């Protein structure tokens, strides 16, 4: 709903922040305040209820244009209105060319503030609805094999209930798609679907990520942050790779399940939450229980219904359909010339064991769409790529073969390296930058340079 979307105000002047807050309140628009760019970025990363940002151009430390680039990388569909003082109008106009929605000149005019805010929130609402439609379209589970038919039938039976679901299966088998379909077919479909990659978040940060924190509750807590449980209120919380959660966090998740309420780190007031939990793992949790690495009581709380995603080698008859769909997507996404798979190429794909399952097949097909020298993709083309999904330098499907100079080779290698690290960390840009020892702003610049974006589910 439009009324539930809030405006984020990023400005170092308390008077401007308060004036904007009061103006928006008069227009029945709630606000979140941030005194600097870093606090504002934390809010953009940690909140799903933001529909608009007011951003001052001139601030101590990092200026608004730098923050604008990061917001655009984090949330390209989030409208940003720049606030400009005397002498910065030309800069503000330039900011609109960099993706800003519009700009306001100080002193702020109340009527123009409300007009821009309402228009921007309406655009945000439309963007959100379009994104949800795309996500639901992307959540289609393709295939007509017996294992897939059984899985789809089971999803259809359990989705309308409130039962907690444990989705099991190897990496790349589509556990996220199962979670999305469960959500879309449930009475909670109009609520949020919030996902947490338990393997990608350091254990010392997991509690804050799940339950939120109050401002000042620990070093680096520059602003209040809602946890994933709060953000998923009224919807579904997807705990991906739950088998990698440490025992301390498991105990706290169990308590939330039993009490239906959370407490933020540094907070004293319990917060009621109404959340359906869907968990996923590529591990055998019963073996993890026996080894003392997973709580037995939590396992039985999560595993009310278990849904198993079959590996691709058990559903080879689905490969022609999957490959054709992935090829069409890759051609459209990368603006490459049209491509078709001949019978030999399809048969070659079906002969592979696919240890990376559907995800590996998708990556291989995308490489074929980009690297195949002719419109028709043959078994020979497949042979150069399919074995690893990232062929050795001497193979005919070498991803570096199009590099004519050493600089071009380095660009291809860097893009591939960054993509792999981002995927390993669940596309958490902040964590990836920290692990790489890189400034987050530099990483954002590289993402923009190489056109790297978090894939839509």
Topology:
Layout: E1 6-10, H1 14-26, E2 31-34, H2 37-46, E3 50-56, H3 64-74, E4 80-84, H4 89-97, E5 102-105, H5 110-138, H6 146-158, E6 165-168, H7 175-184, E7 193-197, H8 203-211, E8 212-213, E9 225-226, H9 228-231, E10 236-240, H10 247-259, E11 261-262, E12 271-272, E13 276-281, H11 285-290, H12 296-302, E14 305-308, H13 319-334, E15 340-341, H14 343-351, H15 357-371, E16 376-377, H16 379-383, H17 406-424, H18 429-436, H19 440-450
Parallel strand pairs: 1-2, 1-3, 3-4, 4-5, 6-13, 6-14, 7-10, 10-13, 15-16
Antiparallel strand pairs: 8-9, 11-12
Structure description:
- The chain is an alpha/beta fold and 457 residues long.
- The chain has four domains: 2-136, Rossmann fold, CATH 3.40.50; 144-310, 3-Layer(aba) Sandwich (Rossmann fold), CATH 3.40.50; 313-402, Helicase, Ruva Protein, domain 3 (Orthogonal Bundle), CATH 1.10.8; 403-457, Arc Repressor Mutant, subunit A, CATH 1.10.10.
- It is 47% helix and 13% strand.
- It has 19 helices and 16 strands.
- The chain has helices spanning 14-26, 37-46, 64-74, 89-97, 110-138, 146-158, 175-184, 203-211, 228-231, 247-259, 285-290, 296-302, 319-334, 343-351, 357-371, 379-383, 406-424, 429-436, 440-450, and strands at 6-10, 31-34, 50-56, 80-84, 102-105, 165-168, 193-197, 212-213, 225-226, 236-240, 261-262, 271-272, 276-281, 305-308, 340-341, 376-377.
- The chain has a five-stranded parallel β-sheet, with helices on both faces. It has a five-stranded parallel β-sheet with strand order 7-10-13-6-14.
- Helix 2 (37-46) runs parallel beside helix 3 (64-74) and helix 13 (319-334) crosses helix 15.
- It is globular.
- The two termini are 22 Å apart.
- The model is unreliable at 387-397 (pLDDT under 50).
